[in-house]
Write a structure and sequence with these properties.
single chain; mainly alpha; 10 helices; 80% helix; rod-shaped
Length: 209
């Protein structure tokens, strides 16, 4: 493995760095974007239960805000629960925009890695081919096996760059879609809470998964 990296030249270092960064981002986002973490089951029902008992204090709101991204969105609306529906919705939308930005954290970086990795690999191949042809100019064609070996080494960076870019692009698309799905779920829960608090809807207890 080390010989392969060495044969690819100095551009293998940024490609490997991109690989490590992409792996770290993918693992962190897969953990952070779990449904149970972002949208806890029956959170709206628990809030209504606490509210109906007149036990919804600032302490409860602080705990709710720190508990999950959905909790942060709902807490923003609950702060204004004594105001009109429009005020609650505006507060929720403002908090929701911030939460979505947090859910999308590092995804732009992952997309950038997916874009630049094959370009770094191609650059390494071009530099390698320049060195091969420079050697041909200086010493002639000489040994065809040596020429083929030089070209093979020049292609190592392209292969490595593509190996980093392909899974990075796949996970970028998947995680982006995951954020969209979670955002829609949070919007539905927030709307449910507003309607329940305004007396426009009966609360429904969902089965725990």
């Amino acid at each position: 493995m080390f010989e392969l990296v060495k044969a690819g030249g100095w551009l293998m270092l940024p490609i490997i760095t991109c690989s490590v960064a992409a792996t770290a981002i993918i693992l962190e986002r897969l953990w952070a974007l779990r449904t149970k973490r972002v949208i806890p089951v029956n959170l709206v029902a628990q809030i209504w239960k606490t509210h109906s008992r007149n036990k919804l204090t600032n302490g409860h709101l602080a705990t709710l805000r720190a508990g999950s991204p959905l909790g942060r969105v709902l807490a923003a609306g609950l702060v204004n629960r004594k105001h009109s529906r429009e005020v609650m919705k505006e507060s929720i939308e403002e908090a929701g925009r911030q939460v979505v930005l947090e859910l999308e954290r590092f995804l732009n970086t992952l997309g950038t890695i997916a874009s630049i990795s094959p370009l770094l690999g191609l650059l390494g191949t071009v530099i390698g081919m320049i060195e091969v042809f420079s050697a041909i100019v200086g010493a002639g064609v000489g040994n065809p096996a040596m020429l083929a070996g030089g070209i093979s080494q020049a292609l190592i960076t392209t292969a490595t760059g593509l190996s980093v870019a392909i899974p990075s692009l796949m996970f970028h698309r998947y995680l982006t879609g995951r954020v969209v799905t979670l955002t829609v779920g949070m919007e539905e829960e927030a709307l449910k809470m507003v309607e329940v608090m305004q007396g426009e809807r009966e609360i429904e207890q969902e089965p725990a998964v």
